[in-house]
Amino acid sequence: MLDAIVIGAGFSGLYMLHRLRGLGMSAVVLEAGDGVGGTWYWNRYPGARCDSESYYYSFSFDDDLQQEWRWSERYPRQPEILAYLNHVADRFDLRRDIRFGARVTAASFDDGWTVLTERGDELSARFLISAVGCLSSANVPEIPGLDGFAGEWYHTGRWPHEDVDFTGERVGVIGTGSTGIQAIPVIAEQAAHLTVFQRTPNFSVPARNAPLDEEFQASVRAEYAEIRALQRETGNGHPFRISPRNAVDTPPEQRREVYEAAWQRGGLRFRAAFNDLLSSQDANDTAAEFIREKIRETVRDPEVAERLLPHDHPFAAKRPPIDTGYFETYNRDDVTLVDVRETPIVEITRGGLRTTEAEYPLDALVFATGFDAMTGPMLGIDVRGANGTLAEKWRDGPQSYLGLQVAGFPNLFIITGPGSPSVLTNMPTSIEQHVDWIARCLKDLRDNGFERIEATEEAERAWAEEVQAAANRTLLPQAKSSWYLGANVPGKPRVFMPYAGGLAHYAALCDEAASQDYAGFHRS
């Protein structure tokens, strides 16, 4: 029997394997894909790019790794991130303990975990660690007629590994979330005509992407210790602090100057311009209206611009995309915007897509419809604990203690699962915090002669209340169509899933529990 089985070979799985080896534990990583990378192995769609800046969307656990790697752009493209993760796998000789093409289908506990894969592997281990990620279960909407579509269709999260060429084709894209906003400008450059089927207008801030010069990279390498310390001290895992000033207390002209400077700088720091943007509706309205004005200025056709204006959710209450030329794309003569809230999709036909108003001829269709986020990857596995299945346990929404463990599922750890800050943060920072905590826990169990650890139901219930209370202290739950709430998947319970109390505060709570003999957990 192994000490541990890890599911997934993305950022989480690679670092977890590295830490397990450091503890002298025997471990195997089971990975569905044919290579490492996780999210960045599967998401190869046109324009796929990270929205955290490259120099801190990376591991901090090894300074030699930080010093030797060179990023080419402010926001790295998918191939560059995948190359980085392959470099990590090779540098630390991780592949010898990774089984590729091994999609996990079932896991059951009986004095240890037995794991089955799609291809027939059966493995046993004392501990099971889920590194399946938050955004790895593709959500393809059930639209009548898809099976009869004569053209090719794709989901951004399951993109083919060979090049897809849309040259000369009539392409439809459904969805204008983060992936759609990245893909649409790139597809428009290729396609003979692009039709965008917009379900929900979205706020977006320009990325201002650019190559990184050696002078900047040298300064980053010299300051990495300070940068990483700042990441761990902030609420979102980024190396910048949210401004202490409030938008509602700032005179309008000065406030506009702040927004304009943040807009010109670009990127996620826009939402850090003021302290009260996610706690005050009045403050948020000022940011939202500023962005709407920018959309009106950018899109030449006033009717198209009006359809692109988001009014149904506060700014940054849904995942706030950053873009390169997204709104400018709608100035092209070969791009059509269809608002499917006004004219809903009826069916996919053999030759295209039909709404209540018209039929649009298409040669290819792209679903930028996101993921069954946070719970979908885990529930895609038949996980059976000591007293029942995870699907039963999570029927009304995910339950966990600190997002790390689930009562009734001994020796199962979840990295960046529901109930943790995860998707509200820079993911590598959250991943390292989780993996380091799990590694400390495993060492403490071994050092103190324990074989088993499990969250208590009492701690789980209290944490569920705290997760909802933290969300309710913000404007985040007001985005009723957000995947943070599971609203993009029909029939999914509407529960706010990530912890909105901030990464630094969360990490302190995790450390406090560990230092108090793992309060909230039962060890035996």
List the keywords.
524 residues; alpha/beta; FAD/NAD(P)-binding domain; 8-stranded mixed sheet; 5-stranded parallel sheet; 15 helices; 20 strands; globular; oxidoreductase
Question: Can you describe what's shown?
Answer:
- This is NAD(P)/FAD-dependent oxidoreductase.
- It holds the Pfam family Pyr_redox_3.
- Belongs to the FAD-binding monooxygenase family.
- GO terms for molecular function: oxidoreductase activity, acting on paired donors, with incorporation or reduction of molecular oxygen, NAD(P)H as one donor, and incorporation of one atom of oxygen.
- InterPro entries: FAD-binding_Monooxygenases, FAD/NAD-bd_sf.
- The chain is of the alpha/beta class.
- It has a domain at 2-45 and 93-138 and 373-523: FAD/NAD(P)-binding domain, CATH 3.50.50.
- It is built from 15 helices and 20 strands.
- Strands 1, 2, 3, 4, 5, 6, 17 and 18 form an eight-stranded mixed beta sheet that branches. The chain has a five-stranded parallel beta sheet with strand order 7-16-8-9-12, with helices on one face. It has a three-stranded antiparallel beta sheet with strand order 13-14-15, with no helix packed on it.
- Helix 5 links the parallel strand 8 (170-174) and strand 9.
- Helix 1 runs parallel beside helix 13 (427-447).
- It is globular, with a radius of gyration of 23 Å.
- 48% of the residues are buried.
In short:
It comes from Saccharopolyspora karakumensis. The protein has 524 residues and is an alpha/beta fold. It contains 15 helices and 20 strands.
